[in-house]
């Protein structure tokens, strides 16, 4: 049996409440469009005393974030579809039911290379990534709704805002492979 890291388990904190997220029906959840995907924040850092955040990702074909890295752990579980994940320059294909853990500070990205939308759960520990997404994302109504198209000027402004805010959230947006 593993040795405990503490002398005892801390007492229950009655100020913290049970959190139930129903992404397809809960009108109180935040749905955000980012980089062509729709991200639904299921559990915020404020719900977990900052320990983690949980995000439901709807990724259409050819969707997914550009190369980046950040100073927190990130884990993805593919619920539907498949994605190609690139980690430190190596690409793997993940199918529904598979999970990948991305260590803090490692360069990575993923793409939906399939013909149908993919759905992933993303856990970030500690929490904070949901704040970045809230600041740069465009609100949408549902978990699968795409936003209105951005004009070229709006797209440029979105990218500039993400680039400017990234360091505040211990994130670095990297150039695409072969650029830089």
Automatic annotation (TrEMBL):
It comes from the Bacteria. Residues 57-123 form the Cupin type-2 domain. Signal peptide: none annotated. Pfam families: Cupin_2. Transmembrane segments: none annotated. InterPro entries: Cupin_2, QDO-like, RmlC-like_jellyroll, RmlC_Cupin_sf. PANTHER family: PUTATIVE (AFU_ORTHOLOGUE AFUA_8G07350)-RELATED. This is Cupin domain-containing protein. The lineage of its organism: Bacteria, Bacillati, Actinomycetota, Actinomycetes, Pseudonocardiales.
């Amino acid at each position: 049996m593993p040795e405990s890291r503490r002398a005892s388990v801390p007492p229950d904190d009655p100020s913290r409440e049970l959190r139930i997220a129903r992404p397809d029906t809960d009108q109180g959840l935040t749905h955000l469009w980012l980089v062509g995907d729709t991200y639904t924040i299921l559990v915020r850092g404020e719900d977990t005393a900052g320990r983690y955040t949980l995000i439901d990702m709807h990724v259409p074909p050819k969707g997914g974030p550009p190369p980046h890295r950040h100073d927190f752990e990130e884990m993805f579980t593919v619920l539907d579809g498949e994605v190609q994940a690139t980690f430190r320059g190596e690409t793997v294909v993940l199918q529904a039911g598979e999970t990948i853990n991305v260590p803090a500070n490692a360069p990575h990205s993923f793409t939906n290379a399939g013909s149908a939308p993919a759905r992933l759960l993303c856990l970030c520990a500690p929490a904070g990534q949901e704040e970045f997404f809230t600041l740069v994302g465009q609100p949408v109504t549902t978990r699968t709704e795409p936003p209105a198209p951005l004009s070229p000027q709006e797209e440029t402004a979105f990218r500039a805002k993400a680039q400017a805010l990234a360091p505040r959230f211990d994130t670095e947006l990297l150039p695409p492979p072969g650029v830089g």
